[in-house]
Description:
NAD(P)-bd_dom_sf; 45% helix; oxidoreductase; oxidoreductase activity, acting on the CH-OH group of donors, NAD or NADP as acceptor; 7 strands
Amino acid sequence: MNLFDLSGKTAVIIGGNSTLGGTMGIALGGHGADVAVVGRNMEKSEEVAKRIEAAGGRAKCFSADATNAEDLKRVLSEVLAWTGRCDILMNCPGKNSATPFFDITMDEWDSIMEVNLKSVVLACQIFGKHMVDKGEGGSIINISSVSSDPPLSKVFTYSASKAAVNNVTQFLAREFAPARVRVNAIIPGFFPAEQNRKILSPERVESIMRHTPMNRFGEAEELQGAAVYLASEKASSFVTGTVLRVDGGFGAMTI
């Protein structure tokens, strides 16, 4: 028995054209899932789709604003027209800022909360309802952050949004469990992706390394195992409400 076989499953990745989302999508496709790459930048989405196909998977790109309910409803209908299924939802859009606390405007607060939290809630409402109503189970994987608990310095709004994602994950795990729809989150450690490069000053990097027992950044591919594990009903059928750390030991570090 192959615990990690996703053949016959369809995975929808919101923010699937991002560095981390795309890399996890390649793993899901390589293990047999049809992968719907959802994002606003279609050029980046097409690049990810090609990499999924090179890994032996099947992929299709869908254009959507993750914070727009009508866009997400349209994507669901388009995905169902493509494969007839939606078994796995991965939420990984992300927006960050290092604005000092007293300088944060409510426009900036709203913008980050829209991308990091509202998009997750909307996708769980729209795609999650389909899974629950279908009655065949499913897996929702939310991408959180080491900044969710305890919060990192300098990224106040981002930290608050990701703490809320953990809360939403556990709430929905309880709500969806009777329908065998599992809801979990992955907490990546420090993976130098596009959105966080701009705040990685030399001092910040030194501090991160001091608090990471493995003393290095993560590689995007190191998230693939966690993604496939949580996506696979065979491998993680009794796992829901879990926040899975892939952080090189960052969450275990004190002094």
